[in-house]
């Protein structure tokens, strides 16, 4: 079987840091082209738009969409209509209806659509899921604090409507929760702190609850400096355990649990292995639960204006 010929749409930080290296390291794929208005990748064909790339490179099999979420739907729709398999970076789209329509288009086109949630592939998540199979959950606390200037420098889209603000990294934590907790999760209360000069929140305080009544407290903050904090603390009937480092480390009884041999891989390496498997099997994988939870949060939240936020000029 020939390598899956890939094109990338959106050559930003996440594409350069994760997608390009993982595609290059996986023999199931061959990176052939990129489409970006502001950047190029060396050694491959480069175009300004996805349409130009699809017209200019015959035989592309699949497209990885790494643009801001406001642009995902149109790009994925065009790629599916042109008969390409599609991998989408998170967050999926600006609306649930768009994601549902893409799922329908993939089915009609008989192409694989893979909505990725990279934090679900973190090393500690699968062992944590197995741990919860033998325990009863009593409570959860999420602390997700990071420096937006470090992780999203110059990315104006994240502050615009549909850009999610602090819920862009926050959805990573929510995707871990929906992976580990099968029953529905609802917002009980939500407070979004929105800078007066922006359209998306810079911080959030959430109280969620499962259908079975388990409370989940969530604190998200883009203003954090110093050591970055991506922790989820679980209380169970057999004692607490913790996921830290964005799900990368599982700690039980104060001791880190070593990763199993078959789990020793990065999040995006796992994503691309899964994508190759989906294409080979003729299947799609579209998990909408994290986006549904974010949509519910925005629907029910109380928004409070806070001090303006300006990124320092270089």
Topology as a string of helices (H) and strands (E): EHEEHEHEHEHEHHEEEEEEEHHE
Helical run tally: 9
Tell me the Rg in angstroms: 20 Å
Instruction: Characterize the main sheet.
Output: 9 strands, mixed
Structural class: alpha/beta
Number of strands: 15
**Strand ordering within the main sheet:** 14-13-12-11-7-10-9-8-15
CATH superfamily of the largest domain: Dihydrodipicolinate Reductase, domain 2
Question: What distinguishing features does this structure have?
Answer:
single chain, Rossmann fold, alpha/beta, 9 helices, 6-stranded parallel beta sheet, 9-stranded mixed beta sheet, 314 residues
Structure description:
The structure is a single chain. The protein folds into 2 domains: 4-115, 3-Layer(aba) Sandwich (Rossmann fold); 123-263 and 295-306, 2-Layer Sandwich (Dihydrodipicolinate Reductase, domain 2). The model has no long low-confidence stretch (mean pLDDT 95). α3 (72-81) packs parallel to α4 (96-109). The longest helix is centred in the last third of the chain and has 15 residues, at 267-281. α1 (13-25) links the parallel β1 (4-9) and β2 (29-35). Helix content is 31%, strand content 27%. The N and C termini lie far apart (48 Å). It is an alpha/beta fold. Strands 14-13-12-11-7-10-9-8-15 form a 9-stranded mixed sheet. The protein has a 6-stranded parallel sheet with strand order 3-2-1-4-5-6, sandwiched between helices. The chain has 9 helices and 15 strands.
